[in-house]
Structure formats: C-alpha cells, structure tokens
C-alpha cells in the first residue's frame, strides 16, 4: 500500500468518525426532546401566549428553533392551532417549518458537508452534486410528503449532502403545506375531534401520505437509474479512446 492509499484511508476514517459523532449528537438530542421531554412545550406555549399581538411571530421563531433541536413538529403545529386557530395557525406553522428547514440544513452543511464529500470521494460527490442541482428541490418536497419521516433530521442530512438553502426553504414551503394544515387543524380541534375540521385534516393526511409513499418509491427508482447512467458515462470516458493492440 502506498503512502497515498494510507492517507486516504486515514482521511476516510476521520470523516466517518466525524459524521458518526454528528449522528450520535442528533440522536441524543432527539431522545432528550422527543422521548425524555426535557423541554416543556406547554410552558413555552404559555409564555408565548403572554406576548399579546406579537405572539404569532414569536411562536414561529421559537418553534423554528425548537424544531431545529428536534422537538417534534406535530406537537409544535398542534400548539399553533390551539393558540391561533386553523387559519392563522397554519401560516405560523408553515413559517416555523421553513425556518427549521433552513436552520437545520445550514448546521448540517457546516458540520458534515466536508466529511460527506470525503467519504463519497470526489467522483461520487460530483455526481451527487449534479443530481442535487437538477432534482434537489423536488427531493426536499418529496421527503415532506413521506409519512413518518422526521423533517429536521432529513434537513440536517440534506445540508450535509449540499442541498442549497434556497432549495430547502422553497421545498419545505411547498412540501410542508399539507401537513402544516393537518397538524394545526387537529390542534385547533383538540376539544372536538369529531368536528368537520378534524375530519378534513385526517382526509388530507391520508391523501398526502399515500401520494408521498408513491412519490418516494418513484423518486428512489429514478435516482438510482440516473446514478447508474452517470456511472456508466464516467466509465465510458475512462476507457476512451479504446486501447489498440
């Protein structure tokens, strides 16, 4: 093994350890805020309600920050519906969701972008960048439709793999609109889950979940197909011109 091979292996281990550390930190945060509930969302909601007319804006900003540290989005959205009703609450939830996507993506890019490229290697990283340039926006939109996919964790991952912030913001706005309505409307209907608004929210959730699962399957197959095509093109360039005997 040459010195270059040894340094490349060492570099890969370093990048892998860095990404593993980032993943462990995020999983630890997720456990603390989503399982152990170290943050009392009810208390936060009460303090924000006391700010008066500025409460919607304050709630959007605080929710964006809480979402970035992996407080579950449905809980924050339901609180928005409970405080501001289904109409205003949906816009507050959507603003907070876009804010969380941008913050998480930015942090993911700063923490893991270099290591992600190091692990992939220059050739694969360049192919991935080309895929993101063409389809990054719709990858973000599609992820938001997938049922059960944690948006903040996905945003960290998108950031680490280089999805631009504008794609994160626009994609989160488009893809999160249905779920923003769903969870906010359910929060606004918390006292009467048999209300028409609650039924409408459940219907929207079912439709978007079905579309999301279908789109995720199609998107994955398309991504793999284009990835194989790109690899084949690179290989053809390598062997050109053909060797002569």
TrEMBL record:
<keyword id="KW-1133">Transmembrane helix</keyword>
<feature type="transmembrane region" description="Helical">
    <location>
        <begin position="57"/>
        <end position="77"/>
    </location>
</feature>
<feature type="transmembrane region" description="Helical">
    <location>
        <begin position="16"/>
        <end position="36"/>
    </location>
</feature>
<protein>
    <recommendedName>
        <fullName>TVP38/TMEM64 family membrane protein</fullName>
    </recommendedName>
</protein>
<keyword id="KW-0812">Transmembrane</keyword>
<comment type="similarity">
    <text>Belongs to the TVP38/TMEM64 family.</text>
</comment>
<keyword id="KW-1003">Cell membrane</keyword>
<dbReference type="InterPro" id="IPR015414">
    <property type="entry name" value="TMEM64"/>
</dbReference>
<keyword id="KW-0472">Membrane</keyword>
<dbReference type="InterPro" id="IPR032816">
    <property type="entry name" value="VTT_dom"/>
</dbReference>
<feature type="transmembrane region" description="Helical">
    <location>
        <begin position="83"/>
        <end position="107"/>
    </location>
</feature>
<feature type="transmembrane region" description="Helical">
    <location>
        <begin position="197"/>
        <end position="216"/>
    </location>
</feature>
<feature type="domain" description="VTT">
    <location>
        <begin position="71"/>
        <end position="188"/>
    </location>
</feature>
<feature type="transmembrane region" description="Helical">
    <location>
        <begin position="153"/>
        <end position="177"/>
    </location>
</feature>
<dbReference type="Pfam" id="PF09335">
    <property type="entry name" value="VTT_dom"/>
</dbReference>
């Amino acid at each position: 093994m040459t010195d270059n091979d040894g340094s490349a292996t060492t570099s890969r281990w370093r990048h892998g350890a860095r990404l593993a550390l980032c993943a462990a930190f995020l999983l630890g945060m997720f456990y603390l805020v989503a399982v152990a509930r170290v943050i009392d969302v009810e208390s936060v909601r009460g303090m924000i309600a006391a700010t008066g007319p500025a409460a919607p804006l304050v709630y959007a900003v605080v929710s964006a920050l809480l979402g970035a540290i992996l407080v579950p989005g449905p809980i924050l959205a339901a609180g928005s519906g409970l405080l501001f009703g289904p109409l205003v609450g949906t816009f507050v939830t959507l603003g907070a969701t876009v804010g969380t996507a941008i913050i998480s993506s930015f942090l993911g890019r700063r923490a893991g972008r270099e290591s992600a490229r190091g692990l992939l290697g220059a050739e694969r990283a360049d192919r991935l960048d080309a895929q993101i340039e063409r389809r990054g926006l719709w990858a973000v939109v599609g992820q938001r439709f997938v049922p059960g996919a944690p948006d903040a964790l996905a945003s960290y991952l998108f950031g680490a793999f280089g999805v631009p912030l504008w794609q994160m913001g626009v994609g989160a706005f488009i893809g999160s609109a249905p779920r923003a309505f769903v969870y906010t409307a359910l929060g606004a209907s918390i006292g009467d889950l048999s209300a028409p608004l609650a039924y409408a929210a459940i219907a929207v959730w079912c439709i978007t979940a079905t579309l999301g699962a279908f789109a995720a399957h199609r998107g994955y197959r398309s991504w793999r197909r284009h990835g194989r095509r790109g690899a084949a093109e690179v290989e053809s360039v390598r062997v050109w011109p053909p060797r002569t005997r």
